[in-house]
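Running co-folding for norvaline.
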Amino acid sequence: MVRHLLKISDFTKIEIEKIINKAIELKANPQDFTSALKGETLLMIFEKPSLRTRISFEVGMQQLGGHAIFYSIKDSPLGKKENIHDTAKAASRFVNIMAARLFKRHDMWDLAQYADVPVINMLDDFAHPCQMMGDFLTIKEKKGRLNNLKISYFGDAYNNVTYDLMRIAAIFGLELDVACPVGSEYTPEQVVLDEVSKISKETGAFVNIVHDAYNAARDSDVIYTDSWMSYGIPIDKEEERRIIFTPFQVNSQIMEAAKSDAIFMNCLPAKRGYEQTAEVIDGPQSIVFDQAENRLHSQKAIMLFLRDKF
Ligand code: CP
Ligand code: NVA
């Protein structure tokens, strides 16, 4: 059966570790993999904007000897003259892997259901598994381990990146405090809480939704935040959201509450003065550009894994 990566929990802990270890190898010795996907093609379907994801997949596929096609939904018959079923079936006849960045999780799931090749979720409203793979590679590089860690997340928790961070923290048996405003618009959906609590029962993880940012930061190894204005949120919501999220901004008080060797992470794009201050993101504890770079190495490993190359 064809495997897909639609959310990070589609892979087991052992598989995630295997992919991270392969990414470390790819990063150290890229020259050993220049023909690993020779002659293969990745189709990248985009419905929302991207810098990192688009470039890292395109460069990654080229470095593996393959070819990537950027395909904007704007230019497609999808949703106008054609349904996802037909798009998935037809595209599967041409390419070896499909990757998609779509607004709705149901469209992503339909694409995967009908595709005859692996589908990689490059971000929808439910998950960002490629981000997590790169982020955990980065945490491993910086902290030397992926166990016995406290991670603290701040800000918008009704959010794709937060959901996969919760899932991966549960899978690895970690402590994760998600500090966010009260209210269903800002907190994780019940379906995610249920999945995370089921995984945590097996792994001993502690994933907590909290509303006091300072307490959440205490003794943390990793301070993580994401945009307050995710792709697709209307601009007229910006001021209201800025006010609601400001108590959850990562600033120097939050960094001081964490362990002295804590790292600061943001999947990017970031806005200084919003989800974090400039002194934090441009400061010595920030590792955001290593995090961005690791998207490349980890996605090369994901593609090799889904093509059964290791
Ligand atoms: N972090 C991330 O996915 O960035 P882009 O939106 O630029 O792809
Ligand atoms: N939560 C953000 C992640 C961007 C990579 C968004 O959906 O825009």
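Result summary
The chain has two domains: 8-128+292-306, 131-287.
The first strand starts at residue 41 and ends at 46.
Job closed.
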